Write the structure tokens for this entry.
Amino acid sequence: MNGELQVWELIREASLLVQCVMALLAAASITSWMVIFRKRQMLARAESRSRKFEEKFWSGADLNKLYDAVAGSREPREGLEAMFEAGFREFTRQREDGRLDADALTNGAQRAMRVTLTREMDRLEHRLSFLATVGSVSPYVGLFGTVWGIMNSFRGLAGSQQATIAMVAPGISEALIATAMGLFAAIPAVVAFNKFSNQVERLEVHYDNFKEEFASILNRQARRLQEKG
Amino acid sequence: MLSPQRKQAIKDGLAAFGLAIAVHLGFVLILVVGTWQWEPFEHKPVPVRVTLVDRGPTAVEQPEAVDDAMEAAERERQRQEELERQREEEAERQRQAELEQQREEEEAERRRQEQLEQQRREEEQRRQEEAERRRQEDEEARRQAEEEQRQLERERREREEARERELEELRRQREQAQSEREEQQRRLDELSERREREAEEQAAEEEAERLRLAEEQAAADARRATLREEYIATLRELVRRSWLRPPTTQPGVRCNVRVLQAPNGGIIDATIVSPCNADDATRRSIIAAVNRVGEFPTQGYEDVFERQITFEFYYDG
């Protein structure tokens, strides 16, 4: 009998509850890896897009032209682009309404940008909590499976007259697989959660800075308009 | 109908799922390889101790003894008769055996004589055959020796001829190789000459191309430098125009001004940076002048736009 069959047999011979625990942990592990891959791709794209947009923004392009380019693009807007679009649209609309008070203009734009920022953050943080849950809970679930398996194993021991370690060893080995699976699901989830939450935090700071800078630019423009008007 | 974004999201999800499955398969593979050497558990039955008890041998039944005197006497008589008959038979057999033996001895003597005669005849024949064989062998050896001699002679001649031919062949080959080498050398010379010529031509072309590119680059740089100078001069002029000179300012002011501007040219911040030889009042007045300008021109200067630009402000009276 070779090793593969052996491990497989250990899993197959485990009691029903322990098998359920194992299935749960396997599902959690697969799902958390799915989330990891999705999140990684999403964050990488958000970073590269915001970097590109910022380069474009600070390269001295005309803001109206930039707005037209962003608003006319077919791709869904995300990150800095979305914030810029929301702020500038609000600013333009208020100005066209004939409002000339600089603070009112700026505040409106800033509010719009804040809303967009919150939405963006929500989007970036989506499902991160799942990783955190898997990371913290799955070792306990695995441990539960193990305890249950060992319990059963010892109960079987109680019924026999001549107790040997050989009678409980397979049962304990079976049960310990559950703990191994729990740890296996938890470790990548914790590592990925830490990495991603750090990345999201950095992006948030970045977005926030951009929001403030853009607001100050809009404020100046509004004040100039006010002076002219 | 699904929207393209939704479709993209589903595609991404499937890709992620595939990757996740691949990761798990990899781990299972590692697990299988890692546990390959594990000894399997054997569920051995627990040994049971059995005690055997020996109760000793059981009783055996005794056979009954029967004795009959009459029967014994009868048996004794029969035995005596039997012995008598056997003795008579024995004497008869012995006589027969003696006769037999005598006949056999005579027969043996006759056979021995015949055998001796036979041996003598065979001996004679063998001697004659031996003599004949030796004579033939001698003859054979002589013929072989002659044959060998002739063979050797022929081989020697052949060897000499072969050597001659080989030498001839070698001479021919050497000549041929010589001519081939010369031919090759000539071709190589031609080739290298041509290659050199080509390389020179290419190098000349490349040089020309590089010069052209460098000139273009220099022209673009020069254009850009000119544009930048013009841009700086415009900024300086704008600032000078809105500058309100304080009474304490002496001619010969040289101050570097750093301005942070928005993409549309709006001025966000202005600071005096070293070197600057003006007094505080003049510095303040320069900053006020920059703020009064409010917005720098950007039309036509997109190529040289800098978010943070530093230029020198001067006043010579």
In short: The radius of gyration of chain B is 68 Å. Residues 56 and 62 of chain B are 19 Å apart (CA to CA).
